[in-house]
Amino acid sequence: MRGSTRLPRTVRLLIVARAVNRLGAFSMSFLTVLITTDFGAGAAVAGGVSAAFGLATIPSRLAGGRLADRIGRRRTIVAGLTGCAVAQLGLAASGSLPSAVGFAVLLGLVFELYEPPSQAMIADAVAPSEHVRAYGLLNAALATAGMGAGLVAAGLGHWDLRWLFVADALTCLLCALTVHLALPADHRTPVPTPAAPDHTPAPAAPWRDRALLLMLATGTLFAVVYLQIMTTLPLAMEHEGLRPTDAGLLFTASALTISAGQPLLRRSPLAALQPPAAFTTGYLLLALGLAGYALTHSLPAHLAATVVWSVGDLLLVGRAYAVVVALAPPGGRGRYLAAYGTSWGIAGIVAPLLGTQLIEHTGPTGLWSTTALTCLLLAALQPAPAQRTTARHTDGNRQPAPTTG
């Protein structure tokens, strides 16, 4: 099993298109600032608007999964990105608070439509043995593009915050156009009826699949931990006497680690890791890095801890999506990926509230100690659904991944 084979053109184009989109995906970080500065609302109102956006992303992702399986991957991606562009342009042009709130909720309702079909399209185009690699490359491309997004935001933010939403809308439209013109057209694949001659068929409904629900539970815990880093790290650094803006340096170090580590996933020690062992190793590294945040208070030590947890992240993200795809029945990949993806919507609501409370009552040491302990718990729990996936393959209930042209 050599990792030197080139990924299909469909996957490479999709990864590039999503990276272009990620270059503009910085505007939502400034939604609360726009609400307070341009419309004179208080912090509580701005937080409520942000929470309403986060809540709206949950049905958005579920709809994306269902549409991906019903009308096709490409159509759903294009529709979702076009809807994002319309909502962001509406936010940029809003002249009143009610208008801005309406467009923010609309943005939430279309914001995640393109995620499940993007992930399902990758799964359709590559062999199961290449799923981890393909999802890892997508994660690395998005992380790398995120570094450029910060630079773009810093430049445009000096003019007017509304230009951030305009730029984000333009990258959405550019990504939608690339997907529409360059990726294969959708073709309807009939979903087989559950009439397998051996054993019981794999459940067609994601919410009845115990293995997927286990993945959803552990995935939600992981998402809460991950979003703690993304949303509360600057605040925690400020409490430690460090400059909160240095969090950008740590995020850059993480993106570089994830990007540089991609070739390692194709080399023998890591390529040969079975999912349970990979999950355990990844969460232990994540716990070690977060414990480093709890125990050290200098910028160099934070950089070293960031590299450690980023190597853990490298092992985790692509592998989790590969397990979810393997659990899905024929024709149900979009719905399964969407159900699993709701973990991020739930975490998006929970993580900021939990993180700020932990910092207020226990300080940064309590915050990072709690997240490190959560990762140790995940190291023990996560292998279970991965083992169930292996058992399904062994029983012959899994079918070969379909290929696309």
TrEMBL record:
SUPFAM superfamilies documented for this protein: MFS general substrate transporter
Transmembrane regions: 12-35, 41-63, 97-114, 135-157, 163-183, 211-229, 277-295, 307-329, 336-354
Pfam family, one: MFS_1
Annotated membrane topology: Multi-pass membrane protein
Domain of life: Bacteria
Keyword Oxidoreductase: no
Gene3D superfamilies on file: MFS general substrate transporter like domains
InterPro entries named among the record's database cross-references: MFS, MFS_dom, MFS_trans_sf, MFS_Transporters, Sugar_transporter_CS
Location of this chain's protein in the cell: Cell membrane
Name of the featured protein: MFS transporter
